[in-house]
């Protein structure tokens, strides 16, 4: 049986669409599609119906009264859902994912069948479907968020899964379980759309970015407390620097061999790397990574990055050691900006000796 998974997030801060741009396709494959839109209702019609059915069944359960015209009640409930979403979104742009695939589903009784759809219960593991597409979603969130110097956040609006049978009829599997920050946006240009698409491809090809994407997704979840956002963002930045250092250590040290007696110098460096293998501090690794990724940047700019990194590390260490801090003062935006700069530099570096999957030219990161 085929499943369809759809989800939507309002993009808080960072980017927006021009007034005349209703929908921009960022990426499309047989497996999934991502779009930015001002008008998500038509894209979310099927999962809105699933939500409406679930809400009505809960209402029916609590008032102990069956509805005479259930399909009509569903349509009325859908209008309420759309109105609620419109109020939440306001002037923000919406990121929508449409995904699909094959899945084993168990259609159980009781089943209700109407002219346009079938209702069943717990026919599919919806969490498994979400997990199956999590990596793609996290990569796209990062690609979109990093289009702006102050990375965007994402507020979940809707998500849902539905099935189709061999006849093409929609099947809604119902499952029941218990379960204001200022921002500035700028219009997304055609060039920005292209950069997001290219960035998404680079992130998907980068084998070492999945944990970073997951942590950034946690950091960028609109409404998450600032402490969790800060710790998730720091963990992502630490991983970027540690992984980058493994790739760039040789490039950082190699100029030392470009002089007389290169064989002896190489032997010395091999010994140095062996001795220092487990002794480099994280700040040492940051210095090496920054020097390799930004060879032509003025010293004062790289030094400023080093100071920011050192201050963020000192703050993270003090939090873990139980020292007092004010959550509202945690520099989440500054951390996100530094993370953006070094992730983009890592995946977009044009030097094939450092990054075989890199684009032919680096997109600006500032």
Describe the protein's architecture and organization:
With 366 residues, the chain is α+β, with helices and mostly antiparallel strands. The protein folds into two domains: 2-205, no CATH class; 210-348. Helix content is 49%, strand content 17%. The protein contains ten helices and ten strands. The protein has helices at 45-63, 70-89, 126-145, 190-205, 210-219, 226-253, 262-276, 282-293, 299-320, 332-348, and strands at residues 2-12, 14-16, 23-28, 32-37, 93-102, 112-113, 117-121, 153-164, 170-174, 185-187. It has an eight-stranded mixed sheet with strand order 3-4-5-1-8-9-7-6, with helices on both faces. Strand 3 (23-28) and strand 4 (32-37) form a beta hairpin. Helix 3 crosses helix 5 (210-219), helix 5 runs antiparallel to helix 6 (226-253) and helix 6 (226-253) crosses helix 8 (282-293). The protein is elongated. The model is unreliable at 178-182 and 355-366 (pLDDT under 50).
Give me the secondary-structure topology.
Layout: E1 2-12, E2 14-16, E3 23-28, E4 32-37, H1 45-63, H2 70-89, E5 93-102, E6 112-113, E7 117-121, H3 126-145, E8 153-164, E9 170-174, E10 185-187, H4 190-205, H5 210-219, H6 226-253, H7 262-276, H8 282-293, H9 299-320, H10 332-348
Parallel strand pairs: 2-10, 7-9
Antiparallel strand pairs: 1-5, 1-8, 3-4, 4-5, 6-7, 8-9
Helix pairs in contact: 1-2, 3-4, 3-5, 5-6, 6-8, 6-10, 8-9
